[in-house]
Structures are given as structure tokens and as C-alpha cells.
Amino acid sequence: MDISTFRVGRHGGPDEADLAYRERLYGLIGAIVVAGGHVEAAMKRLILLLRDEQGGFSLVDKTWSDLHKLLVAQSRRSIPQATALAEILEWGKVNELKRRRDDAVHASWWHWDGVGVMRSRFFRKQDGANIVCTLEDLEEDARLLFAYAEKLDLLLEADWPQARLPRRT
Prior knowledge:
- This protein is mainly alpha-helical.
- It is built from 5 helices and 3 strands; from the N terminus they run ααααβββα.
- It has a 3-stranded antiparallel β-sheet.
- Helix 1 crosses helix 4 and helix 2 runs antiparallel to helix 3 (82-94).
């Protein structure tokens, strides 16, 4: 039997430890999802800027993979940002940021305390796989994804509008 396809539950339903574990797990998965959204938005902004497009995000309504390909193409042009863009894209590739995001977003999480940080992942046209990690690994995933978004956004310099919230006193 393929354990990745099992439905996992606890006799009697979740207990207090399960609920506490879920709170931490869901917070980390949420951070990864938010960071992944920041990466995709940064990719879209950068493509629009480098292409000198005057429209909105609907012009770059693409998947992460397609956005990455468009940025690779931009990094091969004779533009001032080409070298930095190529280095950032390579950094993202070396750190497997798309895989990290996908492994969080496209997984069936085992959200029960005491079984480790486990998820089942189903890749296209393949059987399922179980992925085991730690909560610290998920923190690292989120940290790297946020760093990637920041690196991409830095290439925009002052050429893209920003909104700044007031400093809290």
C-alpha cells in the first residue's frame, strides 16, 4: 500500500497537543505561501519593468515556471540589470525555491502531533511521495523565499511605485 495516500486521523479526534502543533505548522505553511506570493509578484513587476510594459499584472498572468523563463530571457539581454538578474535567478535555482514553495503548497499535510513534520505530495503523472522535514526546515523555506522576493525587488530600484506605512511610535 502507498502510505502517501492514507487518510490520517487520531482515535477520538485531535487532542490539545495536536491543536498546538497545528497552530505552529499552519503559521509556517502560511509564511511560505505569503513568501511565495511575494516572489511571484516581484517576478511580475520585474518583467513588466524590463519589458517597459505599460499595463498591469494581467499582462504577465503566468505560472512561477513561466515567469522564471521570461526572467531568464530578460537576463540574456543587453540591459543594466542582466548580470544581477542572472545571479539572483541562479541563487533561487540553487536553493530550490520553487520546489520548497511547491512542496508546501501542493501537499497533504499530516497535521497530527507526534508523527513528525510529514506531508504527502503528489507530482503529476507519478505516485505519491512522503516528505519528512522539521519545523526548522519550514522556517528556513520561508526565510529563503522572502529573501528571494527581496533580491528581485531590489532590481526595481526606484522605478516601481512603493507604498510605505508610517513608523509606529
